[in-house]
Request: fold
Amino acid sequence: MNVNQIRKQIPWIKNNKDKIYFDNAATTLKPKCVINKISYYYTHLGINIHNTDSTFCFDVYKKIEMARKTIAKIINCSPENICFVSGATEGLTMIAHGLAHYCKKAEVLLNDFEHASNLLPWYHEKQNGFFKIKFVNINGQFNKKTIIESITKNTKIIALTLASNVYGNSIDDYSKLCTQIKKINKKIIIVLDATQYLAHKWINQLRDIDFIVCSAHKIFGPLGVGFVYLKKDWITKIQPLRYGGGMNEIITKTKFQPYNNIQKFEGGTMPLAEIIGWQEAIKFIDSIGIKNIIDYEHKLKKYFVKKMSTIKNLEIYNPNTPLPIIIFNYKGVNAQDFASWLGTKGIICRSGLSCAKLIKNILKKENFVRCSLSLYNTKKEIDYLYKVIKRYKKGEEIRKIL
Ligand SMILES: Cc1ncc(COP(=O)(O)O)c(C=O)c1O
Reply:
């Protein structure tokens, strides 16, 4: 993998020479091909695909469907099983809403690693009088065993992130886990939040999974688009979240009938420029090779941990997790102050609990700095961070920020 070549493809890097971007778990930077394709939509295509009355319009429609096919590749599914939404948050809201009306009082199993997007839609439907919520009994460990042990005869839905946006742990043997869950009770519905996972690894085993969500912007694609994968039966079984044009087959004065395919969930005008932009992001990843990306990121994290571990006052909480996300504190310094001070040195990282607020129950920390790396980050950038932290003097963060 030629990192210098990759960096040349990311305009942000060229336009921000004095900055280092270590906040990739929040959103990734976009390659030129993605930006150009979005621009191409507005300069050359421009139409709404609800209009297929001319060959031109039909060709644009075909382009969108081609993009759907390319995007579906990242989870190895048929394009007929993914609907476009605005992102993972809308996707999880759509699933929780659909399942609330389908299984009403079901018990949902959640866990403390989840992002707010995979907690609040379930909480919200609980407040509406639907679900009961239970948490995996983590007991110091979060793995297949603890998930399986938390399943009871009442468990109807398991909603689980495949990779934590904070701790950087991932469930690589998701396929075995899902099969095991279905062996306990084949009616348990499995919802996977793959938002972070897909930036580093793709999914190839769908057999026992009912729903998957993700956001394009975490995977070098544009903001404002993501998808929901629905296993075939769910397309007919659950209600959509969005009602309007494009999703209905019949409307009379008293009723309507939604389509019986993925269009049912795509009411309203879709983010067409973003969809074709996302397709380019997938091609970009494909041209590098997802395996090369994982290997490179893995080496980068190891280097980061090795180097930063030599700084006496730096406490790293997740040195061995597989994703290139590192959370740490400088002893005795508030994480937010420290991250803001790093900002004054041109290093963009993040502090807080990064929207996974229950993680404090596991880590027993209220706050930490997060550096999340990606394929265009370099050892040189890590060396710069090291040098900056090494020179840090207590209290400097307050003086610099004020
Ligand atoms: C694991 C996880 N799930 C869901 C989300 C929500 O994604 P979005 O804000 O794009 O809807 C995020 C965003 O950080 C995330 O990291």
Remarks:
- The chain has a mean pLDDT of 95.
